Amino acid sequence: MAHRSRTPESVHALLAELPSADRETLELRVERWLPALLAALTTLYPERDVEALATRLVGSALAAHAEREPDLRRLDQRRLLQPDWLQQPDMLGYACYTDRFAGTLAALPDRLDLLDDLGVTYLHLMPLLRPRDGDNDGGYAVADYRTVREDLGDVDDLRELTRTLRGRGISLVLDLVLNHVAREHEWAARARAGEQRYRDYFHVYPDRTAPDAYERTLPEVFPDFAPGNFTWDEEAAGWVWTTFNEWQWDLDWSNPEVLVEYAEIVLFLANLGVEVLRLDAIAFTWKRLGTNCQNQPEVHALTQALRTVARIACPATVFKAEAIVGPRDLVQYLGQGEHAGRVSDLAYHNSLMVQVWSMLATGETTLARQALDALPATPPSGTWICYLRCHDDIGWAIDDGDAHAVGLEGFAHRRFLSDWYAGEFPGSWADGLVFQANPVSGDKRISGTAASLLGLSTSTPGTPAHDQALARMFLANAVVLGWGGIPVVWSGDELAMPNDPRWADEPGHEDDNRWAHRPRLDWDLAAHRHDLRTPAGKVFAGLAHLARVRASLPQLHAAADTTVLADTDTGVLAVRRAHPSGPMVCVYNLSDGWRSFSSHHFTDAGITHPHNAIERRDVHGGDDGQVALSPYAAWWVVEAPAEVPHV
Length: 647
Fold this sequence. Notes:
By secondary structure, the chain is α/β, with parallel strands linked by helices. Helices cover 36% and strands 16% of the residues. The chain has 22 helices and 25 strands. Helix 2 packs antiparallel against helix 3 and helix 3 runs parallel beside helix 12. The N terminus is likely disordered. GO terms for molecular function: amylosucrase activity. InterPro entries: Amylosucrase (IPR044077), Amylosucrase_C (IPR055218), GH (IPR017853), GH13_cat_dom (IPR006047), Glyco_hydro_b (IPR013780), O16G_dom_2 (IPR045857).
C-alpha cells in the first residue's frame, strides 16, 4: 500500500485482517479517503486523539463493507466507473410520501408504472423511519433510525423495495435528520434517565444563562407554534436546545460520539440499499455563541467526515444537503476550498425555485438574472437539485443586495410575492395559503400545489385563463428541467392536482396548511394520465415530453457551464450552456405577451442553424434578426441535426 507511513498503524492492523479478496480494494479506498477523514476530524475535535477516532470510523466502514450484499458491491463498482452518474441528463426525480403515494412499502412496486412513464430515475420517499407518536414534524422527529414506521412496513420491506428499484434503474433517496432526534429517541430517554454519556449527546443547561446568551442572535424557525430555541424539560432538569419543536432535541456535534453514532446509521441505511441520503437540517448542526448557529464552518467538516466513511464502505451512496440558506452560503454545501469534492454531492437550488415563482408573478426577469448570475460557480462534481416546489412551504429567499441592485426593495418584493400567491394581490391567478405569517418581521410564506399556485385550479378548462395556466405550468417545468442538475417533481404536480380541500381533517394536520400541497395521489386521475382531453393528461404529457427531450441532450449534463444572458428583453430569461457536445441556449418568455429575442445570441453561442429541441423545429429569425416568442414560450435551442445524406 502506497504512503504507508501516513496511515496510523491501528488502521494498518484493521486492513491486515481483511480477507485477501477485499484487501486491495479497501486499502486503495482508505488510502484515498483517510487524509480527508483526518483533516475533518482535526477541524472538529482538535483536542481529541483524532487517529484513534479515525481508526474507529474506518473499522466501522470495513465491517459494513463485509456485510454489504454482492449486488450493492457491484453497484459500488459501477458508480466508481461513472462518477458523474448523478449529472447525466436522463436523471429525473420524484418525491412523495409512501403512504400518500402507495399505502405501504410492499405496495409501492405496483405503482411504479407511473414513474416509468415519466422517466423517473431517482425516488425520494419522505421520512419513513419510525418517528415519535403524535405530532412529529412530518416524520422529521425520528425516534429510531433503524426501524420503519409500522404502518408502512418493516426493514425487510425497505430492503426488498430497494432491490426492485435498482432493477428498474431508480435510486432510492431517504432523509437522515442530523440536527435533532425526537425526545422519545433512546438517546434522549437515557439522557433524561441520568446517563451522563447520553446527556452529553445534547445541549442541556441547568439555568437560563447560556440559553439567554445564545438567544440574542438566534432566529426563530417556527415562531407561531415553537417560539424560542430552548425548552425546559422537567425530567432532564434542564433547558434543552430545541430549534424546531420542544420535542425535537438538538444534538451536540462537538461530542465525537455523536459523529460515530451517525456514521453507523449511514452505513446501516446504505446496506439496506439507500443510494442517496438527504442530510436534513444540516445547516443547524454546529452551534457557536454570538452567531445564528447556521452555516458554521464545522458543518462542512462533519459532512466531510461522514462522507469519507461512506466512500470507504459504500461509494454508491451519496449525500444531498438540505440547506435552505442564503444564495451565497448555498454553494459551500457542494464543496468549496478545502472541502471541494469532499462533502455533499447534491444541494437544493432554492434560489432557482424562488426566482421562477418571482418571474411568473411579475412577468419580469431582471431580478432573476441578477440573482442567478451572482451565484458562485459550483464545483465540477457538484449537482443541483432543481425543483418547482417541494413538500415544504415556499419562503421568499430574495437577497436584499440582489433586489437593491435592480432597483427593488427586498422586503416589499417578498411581501408582494406572498400576497400574489395567496391570491390577495389584484390580478393574481394564484390560489395559495399563507403559512407562518410573522407580524413582527412581516415574513409570510406560502403553501400550495403547483396547479393551485399557477392558476389551474381556479380557471375553467377551455377558457383563455386555463390555457394560460397550462402554459405557465409547461414553462415552469421547462425552466426547472432545462437548468441541469437533477429536476425533481413533487407527487401530484405531474397530474395537476389542486390543493387538498380536506387537508385539516387528519389528526395532527389541522395547524399546518402545508398538508394542503401534500395530497394523497389520485389514482383514478392517474389511470387517465394519457388522456389529452383533461388538464391532468396535458400536464403529464408535457412533463414526460420535456423529460424525454432532456434525456437526449448532452448539453444538459449538470457539469456544463451555465451563463445567464444579460442583454435580453426584460420579460425573457435566456441561459447559455457550454458543453463539449455543442452549445445550447435556453430561452423562456416569462410574460403573458409576445416578446422578441435577438438571433445573434444563437450565433454568439456557436449555433449556426438553431433548432428548438422541445418543439422539434428549426428557428428562423426575421429580416431584423429578431425571433418572436409567444406568451410563456419555452425553447431549448441547439444546433439543428445534420441531415442524413441519401445513398
